[in-house]
Amino acid sequence: MLNARARVSKATVRRIPLYYRAVQQLQQQGVKRIRSERLSEIIHIPSATIRRDFSSFGELGKSGYGYSVDTLVDEFGKLLEVQDAENILLVGCGGLGAALIENNFRRNPDLNITMAFDIDPAKIGTEIGGVPVYDFRELAMRVTPDIKTAIIAVPSSAQPQVIPALEGIGIDAILTFAPQPVVCLPTTTIRYIDLTSELQSLLFTAHHQQLAD
Amino acid sequence: MLNARARVSKATVRRIPLYYRAVQQLQQQGVKRIRSERLSEIIHIPSATIRRDFSSFGELGKSGYGYSVDTLVDEFGKLLEVQDAENILLVGCGGLGAALIENNFRRNPDLNITMAFDIDPAKIGTEIGGVPVYDFRELAMRVTPDIKTAIIAVPSSAQPQVIPALEGIGIDAILTFAPQPVVCLPTTTIRYIDLTSELQSLLFTAHHQQLAD
DNA sequence: AAATGTTTGTTAATCCATTCACATAGTAGC
DNA sequence: GCTACTATGTGAATGGATTAACAAACATTT
């Protein structure tokens, strides 16, 4: 599994889910073996990059043969720990939060939003897509100790109060849609999805493009 | 404005929206000048990176003084073309699509989702947050020629049909939530937001982290 | 107006990631 | 088993982005 000698670069980490999804699809199609060159055509990542990425997880392939699809599914599955379910809490049940609950990463049975929090009395006590919505002030009371991951979909201004509360109950991985930059504990891994920034930088590139990007 | 001699790196482009948002906030707070060192504390980007980024747009600052907040707001506003409204169409009015319409980038009056498309008869003809939902088969008929930008929030499997249709009506900038990699015209700028991948790579980092990231 | 202090813009150094290119190791056919 | 292919894994080269560090430019104070 994780090759102690080789370090896995950040860029590689961001690609693991793409690899995993692609080899899963191949497996479902009954494909048994895959060459880096062919995989490159499917996911639009250069074959040299694929080979280097794969090799940082050990020697997964065979010269003159390629990679066994089953092996890749296994290995990436282990890397992403898809065997043990990841229970996730969500803070903020506005339109975006509700959409995330309803979606609930349906393709990935190991990813489950199991509870949600809000401060709106109209929402507290209800269920969204079978997921109970609790009062955010009852966070510590309601949360189960298996939950280490949170998704934040609250207005940016509310985020500075949310993060310390989450850290206080043992959350160490946070995905947030609020662009407000925050200070968090060194043990907390945080990732931002900033929809407005994505759109604005996309438009900048489109408007100023000489060459395709 | 755009400094012809200096080229703007992709990494810089992705930061422009963050800079714009920060200097707007400073302006609203009545702040007149800002040093790169101080801005660095606010947005958590190293001051050297900020200075290098800013200098790629011309000499915006003054030695021994810093940057005028008003100048920065002006310049970044011009770069992002916030004076002329960008009309956007949305394809796919499921939970996520509806949430995006209702949000509609409210902080940015220049970004407007003005029409939406779906193939569900139950949705066609309705309005979501004041935005009309049309039949996707009427795309060419309904679209106005001012629209050059689209957001796709359809199931991944439907995306290969959606993209060529959009390109056919002159769309050249696409933001999509469907991770399915696609081939598109060289003149089309496309950006993916892949929620599952973001979450999976976040979890990988959190689980395997020795050092904070 | 001179002296002191501050902060930029940029050159050089470093770091990280991608890509090339090929020796090596294995496959497939005969 | 031997020969001709094929595709990996990786050392070396390249490219892109970040960071350090400082001369030059301006502000401020006296």
UniProtKB/TrEMBL annotation, chains A, B:
Pfam families: CoA_binding, Put_DNA-bind_N
TM annotation in the entry: none
Localization, UniProt: Cytoplasm
CoA-binding domain span: 82-181
Record-linked Gene3D superfamilies: NAD(P)-binding Rossmann-like Domain, Winged helix-like DNA-binding domain superfamily/Winged helix DNA-binding domain
Residues engaged in binding NAD(+): 92-97
Record-annotated DNA-binding residue ranges: 18-57
UniProt-listed InterPro entries: CoA-bd, NAD(P)-bd_dom_sf, Rex_DNA-bd_C_dom, Tscrpt_rep_Rex, WH-like_DNA-bd_sf, WH_DNA-bd_sf
Main location: cytoplasm
Keywords from the named record: Cytoplasm, DNA-binding, NAD, Repressor, Transcription, Transcription regulation
SMART domains in the cross-refs: CoA_binding (SM00881)
Keyword Transcription regulation listed: yes
Family: Belongs to the transcriptional regulatory Rex family.
NCBIfam families found in the cross-reference section: PRK05472.1-3, PRK05472.2-4
Role, per record: Modulates transcription in response to changes in cellular NADH/NAD(+) redox state.
Assembly mode: Homodimer.
Stated name of the protein: Redox-sensing transcriptional repressor Rex
Source species: Lacticaseibacillus mingshuiensis
